[in-house]
Design brief:
mainly beta, SH3 type barrels, OB fold (Dihydrolipoamide Acetyltransferase, E2P), 4 domains, five-stranded antiparallel sheet, 3 helices, 25 strands, about 5% helix
């Protein structure tokens, strides 16, 4: 096996020896100018320190091939400033320094498998799985209204590492818990179908989504007095009672009027007119709104979802009380065209 690489063999992720130090190629570009010799622009990462260099090499230059070996190992425990790993094939144990693991040490959990990179027999880095489930051991509750601005808060993981997390993460939660994006995709796919309920279970996480339009309004039925006895009918002239005109339909049942339209909730959740209790409502009755303007927030699946106007109009009625639960498809606002 050749001990060097030619620039024609470059590829992203290739590990090379540059100035006697192991590097990994992050990206490269072959350049062939109109005049002069061809060359290669590179961006390489130092496997020992993580430092990025951007050297330019002549086409055909050669770089060293480092003596690098990658092993799958299982993390056992921490001993002082070192982390003890076991080779899953030979069961040999090695001590890896914290400086070699870099940030990966903050997410190491006992019995977790990792790929350890060795250079000349020395462990120089570790690659953890793409997703790691870690329990939050300490975390202050977040303020609901702050989620609109994408606010974060500190949380301490079971490994002792502290990082910033979204406000809906609470103490005792797993980092790899409920996949909110997947739930949102499922909810979107169910719109327009006959499915009215979805039960989601993921470990200790459980969620029930009820979908469908709100129940139809109930029509009141008034009792009609019984007809008088036949003898009374002969002695008393019949009384004619004029029929009162029907009462106008209540505002909440007038969504079918041609000159108005409603904005409905796309989620099952909780309706909020403002970003926080201290802020004014997004819109007020009588206000003219533009297409795309934020009307309210529906808190669903631990997310604050901004509901926007799909067309311009003048707000004539707010149909839901602030802080009230809403169903999927339930009307929130009524507008008249402008």
């Amino acid at each position: 096996m050749a001990e060097v690489y030619d620039t024609s063999e470059f590829r992203n992720g290739l590990k090379i020896l540059y100035d006697g130090v192991p590097f990994e190629i992050v990206e490269f570009q072959h350049v062939k100018p109109g005049k002069g010799s061809a060359f290669v622009r590179t961006r390489i990462r130092n496997l020992l320190t993580g430092r990025i260099l951007e050297p330019t090499l002549k086409s055909g230059d050669k770089v060293g091939r480092p003596d690098i070996e990658e092993k799958e190992m299982q993390y056992l425990y921490k001993e002082g400033d070192h982390y003890v790993f076991m080779d899953v094939k030979t069961y040999d144990q090695v001590h890896v320094g914290g400086e070699s693991l870099k940030e990966a040490r903050n997410f190491l959990k006992e019995n977790m498998n990792a790929h350890i990179l060795f250079w000349n027999g020395r462990a120089i880095s570790a690659e953890l799985p793409n997703t790691v489930e870690l329990r939050v051991t300490r975390c202050d509750p977040g303020v609901r209204g702050d989620t609109v601005s994408g606010a974060m808060k500190p949380a301490t993981l079971e490994t002792g590492y502290t990082l910033n997390v979204p406000l809906f993460i609470n103490e005792g939660a797993d980092r790899g818990g409920m996949d909110v994006e997947k739930l949102k995709a499922i909810l979107a796919a169910l719109q327009g179908t006959d499915v009215t309920r979805l039960d989601w279970t993921n470990g200790q996480e459980r969620l029930t989504l009820r979908m469908g339009h709100p129940p139809a309004p109930v029509t009141a039925v008034h009792a009609v007095p019984a007809a008088p006895p036949a003898s009374a009918a002969l002695s008393t002239p019949p009384q004619v009672t004029p029929i009162a005109p029907a009462a106008p339909a209540p505002a909440s049942a007038a969504a079918a009027r041609d000159n108005t339209f409603t904005v409905n909730s796309p989620f099952v959740g909780t309706f909020y007119r403002a970003a926080s209790p201290e802020n004014p409502p997004f819109v007020e009755v009588g206000q003219v709104v533009k297409k795309g303007q934020v009307l309210c927030i529906v808190e669903a699946m631990k997310l604050m979802n901004e509901i926007e106007a799909e067309q311009a109009g003048r707000l004539t009625e707010v149909l839901i009380q602030n802080g009230s639960p809403v169903e999927y498809g339930e009307p929130l606002f009524r507008f008249e065209p402008v």
